[in-house]
């Protein structure tokens, strides 16, 4: 479980531990992982690692497989966000999101896939985003990393046909976590975080269910699915709906 130290990953770790799973808690913040491991019912493994570094996440996966005797579920969830217009956004911020969100997902899956295939069973969850289905201004680079995850995951699910290993892609809308805590003062007008956002616990419950059902994807809240579908059929219609729901900054162009 990458990104386990807080937010969605921490909530999924709680949901899995409550079902009796042994969870590998992967992130960079060792003390948060160690605290979580003691809070959760059962016995769990804090795994300090950086998903941007292939050797680091590979070592974490090896450590878990050795300690737990195998791997049933891999959740590629670690992520970061920098919401800024492209014109002012630093290349460094764009590259960091690429390294963590997109390549970090690749590194995580590459580290675990051979184990899962050798077992002939297991499941992968990729936590993408609703903005991977319909991007928003101010989140161009972030949305691109989430769309990259989406394409990779959807193709991989097909590649895994008949292997005993499967994959679910998750498309959350706005979830109440610390993802944007470092940039609250510069969030775009269309953003609706805070109290109006869904809780990570509600999403975590649905992620566990989606794994049990081997769902191709999970959209949460359901409006995310509707907007993604509408955007695929008519981006202009999706723009119009989003302007009504989120105001003019969600889709400033009308052509
Ligand atoms: N919150 C939302 O509204 C929302 C909506 C759609 C999708 N998502 C996606 O959901 C996922 C989880 O985000 P969240 O909302 O739970 O954010 P969060 O509360 O900020 O948690 C992010 C997690 O990722 C870990 N992480 C960040 N960089 C890492 C790295 N280089 N290596 C390993 N772990 C790293 C963090 O731990 P450390 O800092 O300790 O490493 C933390 O555990 C992300 O992929 C995000 O894009 C979130």
Helix and strand arrangement:
Layout (H helix, E strand, L loop, with lengths): L6 H12 L5 E4 L2 H10 L5 E4 L5 H15 L4 E4 L14 H29 L2 E6 L12 H20 L5 E8 L27 H13 L4 E4 L2 H11 L1 H12 L9
Parallel strand pairs: 1-2, 3-4, 4-5, 5-6
The chain binds NADP nicotinamide-adenine-dinucleotide phosphate.
Distance between the termini: 42 Å
Report low-confidence residues grouped into runs of 5 or more. none
The neighbouring-strand order within the major sheet is 3-4-5-6
How many helices? The count is 8
Can you tell me about this structure?
The chain is α/β, with parallel strands linked by helices. Helix content is 48%, strand content 12%. It has eight helices and six strands. The strands form two sheets. Strands 3-4-5-6 form a four-stranded parallel beta sheet, with helices on both faces. Strands 1-2 form a two-stranded parallel ribbon. The radius of gyration is 18 Å and the shape is globular. It starts with 6 loop residues before the first helix and ends in a 9-residue tail after the last helix. The model has no long low-confidence stretch (mean pLDDT 98). NADP nicotinamide-adenine-dinucleotide phosphate is lined by residues 2-9, 27-29, 32, 50-52, 77-80, 100-101, 127, 129, 172, 174-175, 177-179.
């Amino acid at each position: 479980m990458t990104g386990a130290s807080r937010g969605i990953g921490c909530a999924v770790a709680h949901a899995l531990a409550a079902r009796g799973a042994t969870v590998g808690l992967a992130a960079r913040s060792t003390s948060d992982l160690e605290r979580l491991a003691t809070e959760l019912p059962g016995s769990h493994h804090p795994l300090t690692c950086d998903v941007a570094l292939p050797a680091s996440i590979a070592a974490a996966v090896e450590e878990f497989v050795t300690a737990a005797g195998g791997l049933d579920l891999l959740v590629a969830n670690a992520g970061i966000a920098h919401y800024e217009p492209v014109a002012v956004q630093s290349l460094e911020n764009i590259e960091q999101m690429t390294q963590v969100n997109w390549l970090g997902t690749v590194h995580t899956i590459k580290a675990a896939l051979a184990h899962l295939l050798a077992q002939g069973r297991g499941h992968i969850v990729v936590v993408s985003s609703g903005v991977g289905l319909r991007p928003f201004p101010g989140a161009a680079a972030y949305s691109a990393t989430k769309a990259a995850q989406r394409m990779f995951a959807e193709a991989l699910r097909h590649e895994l046909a008949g292997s005993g290993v499967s994959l679910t892609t998750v498309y959350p809308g706005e979830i109440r976590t610390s993802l944007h805590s470092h940039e609250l003062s510069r969030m775009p007008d269309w953003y609706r975080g805070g109290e109006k956002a869904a809780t990570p616990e509600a999403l975590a419950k649905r992620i566990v269910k989606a794994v049990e059902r081997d769902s191709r994807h999970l959209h949460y809240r359901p409006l995310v699915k509707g907007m993604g579908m509408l955007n695929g059929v008519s981006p202009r219609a999706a723009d119009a709906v989003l302007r009504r729901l989120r105001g003019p900054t969600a889709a400033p162009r009308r052509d």
